[in-house]
Design goal:
Helix content is 52%, strand content 5%. The protein is mostly helical. Helix 7 packs parallel to helix 12. The structure holds calcium ion (CA).
Length: 404
């Protein structure tokens, strides 16, 4: 084939790619615009007036990156030990203790008003937004409009889209400040818009429910959420337990409740010894067993409060991250039973160290932020291949040790 033909073929291919991409883009944009027009009457029925709707939707383009996020949620995709290694690390415990000290007065008032203790409230704050530092950068109207018109949970997201527009209509936040997660959660508590409407409180008394800039409002609102969910101030979230030999795995599951006395009769015992019904746990308290990594890993007897935390974000790994961080803030140690892996997950400090080592080896991974995105994963795969390790793209202790 002559050079001319090859170049021509390449150019035709390139042109075709551009043409197809543009057509898909235009099709998306047209469909999106039609969808937004179609949603206007439903929005009005939901209390969003015409002027508000038009102001925030005219010329709006979809953000297709939120659809990728919809199909990748770390709390469901990561091994529980990897998920917890990043969320409950020494850094977050230290920052959490600092938050407890800094907001001691507010947290005392929060406990008095809502009956939710400081360690729990601060643990939610730490996991949700890294104590207010990571609130998300997606413009909420755009993210929620996209999820209302595309993807697999449109009905749910439409409710949140309309709630977001009602919040803007009420003047609670300036539109440019109204940013958050890809899914529409925002502020230091990462409330969904409808949750903001139902449960946010003005705890610092300045007349605004400001979950974005007021830590006091965020802490109060978190406690209000947990209280409304049925928080039991005298009961712990759960305790780590050990199971007797031959225990039936069929009895394990968050919804399989039995009274504590019944679990004790079945041989379930605290890992540290002592009566199962002690330390705020009564013999008739309703409890269930969870084994996030199977019976070879830590097993927990969980009470009502674990379900309340689960209500914040329906994932057992998430619930355990909050629960465990709250225990660490109470100066309780790590779990007694190790995770069933010989390659533990990495803390954020270790992830940053790994990213630094990857950069030194010439990989382009972007910012060294402890967040292992696509570029980091690709670099990890290359290093795993070079080191003769299993190529998984996962960052674990073995890879970090080999790279050191
Ligand atoms: Ca306020």
């Amino acid at each position: 084939m002559s050079t001319f033909t090859a170049n021509f073929a390449t150019r035709v291919r390139a042109f075709t790619v551009v043409l197809v991409t543009t057509c898909i883009g235009t099709a998306h944009a047209t469909e999106f615009t039609d969808c937004l027009l179609n949603l206007q009457s439903a929005a009005q029925s939901a209390g969003v007036n015409k002027a508000t709707y038009e102001k925030h939707t005219q010329g709006l383009q979809p953000d297709l990156t939120v659809l990728q996020k919809l199909d990748y949620q770390p709390e469901f995709k990561l091994a529980v030990w990897d998920y917890l290694a990043g969320l409950v690390d020494e850094e977050r415990v230290t920052d959490g203790k600092q938050g407890l000290a800094q907001h001691a007065d507010t947290l005392k008032k929060v406990d008095e008003k809502f009956g939710v203790d400081a360690a729990t409230v601060v643990a939610v704050w730490g996991v949700e937004s890294n104590f207010g530092r990571a609130q998300g950068k997606y413009p909420l109207t755009q993210a929620l409009a996209t999820l209302s018109c595309m993807g697999r949970r449109q009905a749910f997201f439409r409710g949140e889209f309309f709630a977001a527009l009602r919040i803007l209509q009420g003047g609670h936040f300036a539109p440019e400040k109204f940013v958050g997660s890809w899914a529409g959660a925002f502020g230091q508590t990462q409330f969904m818009p409808s949750t903001f409407e139902r449960l946010a409180v003005d705890f610092d008394g300045d007349g605004r429910k400001d979950l974005i800039d007021s830590a006091a409002d965020a802490l109060g609102s978190t406690a209000n959420f947990l209280k409304q969910g049925g928080w039991q101030s005298t009961e712990p979230w759960g305790v780590e337990v050990k199971l007797p030999e031959g225990f039936s795995a069929a009895l394990i599951g968050r919804k399989l409740k039995k009274p504590v006395a019944e679990w004790a009769r079945l041989g379930v015992a605290r890992v540290g010894g002592g009566a199962l019904a002690s330390g705020g746990v009564t013999a008739n308290a309703s409890a269930a067993l969870i084994a996030p990594a199977g019976v070879a890993g830590p097993v927990f007897l969980v009470f009502r409060n674990f379900d309340v935390i689960y209500g914040y974000n329906a994932s057992e790994s998430y619930g355990l991250a909050i629960a465990h961080l709250s225990d660490r803030l109470r100066d309780r140690g790590a779990f007694v039973t190790p995770w069933p892996t010989d390659d533990p997950g990495l803390s954020r400090a270790e992830r940053r160290e790994l990213q630094t080592l990857l950069t030194k080896r010439g990989h382009e991974i972007g910012e060294i932020d402890g967040m292992l995105g696509e570029k980091s994963r690709a670099a990890i795969e290359k290093e795993q291949a070079r080191l003769g390790q299993k190529v998984s793209g996962r960052a674990g202790a073995k890879l970090l040790a080999a790279m050191r």
